[in-house]
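Let's practice the habit of predicting before peeking. Look at the sequence and jot down your guess about where helices and strands might fall. Then scroll down.
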Amino acid sequence: MTRQEVTSNYIINLERERVSWGYTQPQMAKRMGISTSGYKKIVAGETNKIDLYAAYQLYKFTGKFIFELCGEQSTDLELFQSLRSLTPSQKAFVSDIIRFEQDFQEKAPSAEEYISVIVPTGSMEDGMVWDSANVIKVNAAPYLRKFGRSLHCGLKVTSHNLQPVYHNGDILLISKRPPREGDTVIFVNRENGCAYLRRFRHGSPARLEPVNEYGVTLEIDYDNADEMDKWIKFGCVLTKMRGPDAK
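Done guessing? Here is the structure:
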């Protein structure tokens, strides 16, 4: 970004933060430790000099880093922004996963050839509540070479309930890309907490068909924002790999 773009983004986001907190410009200036005239000069674009202590004070009460307010975008920043919305216990869980990944990277000489695979506890089936899971590491080097960055993680099938399409021990390789016609997708319903592993069919509404032809087809209206808020798209299945204990 250019200097002008950074400054413009900062001004816009600074005023958005002020409005979201319900502050007047003098109140916002006081929270940042600067004069009202100084604040007005900033938002009027009359100066591009931002006091470091003012930026620090802004972070202290908004939680927003200066590079966020300047419009910086990155996958690391998106991850950090997502963490903000989690509960303390959820953050602790994510921290444990991060430490696990760091420890694995330090000890495994070829860590880049492995993916993290989620192993749901209980009898895995379409429409189950995935309230707990373990994480294992699996070497998926050939698939990483084929799919590259689109391969995000794996999901291990832990029962015979998805036969004949998926067998106990299969590892489903998951991508976060938008679903395509005929993809196997995993959607989680926010209201009942259930995860559905279904075949995606385009349409208006879109249809989620059972992969093994048992069960009721679900419909999702992508044009209905309220309905879409009820669903979390976990990912699409790129392919499956046969796990060591698959039969």
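How did you do? Residues 3-83 form a domain with the 434 Repressor (Amino-terminal Domain) fold (CATH 1.10.260.40).
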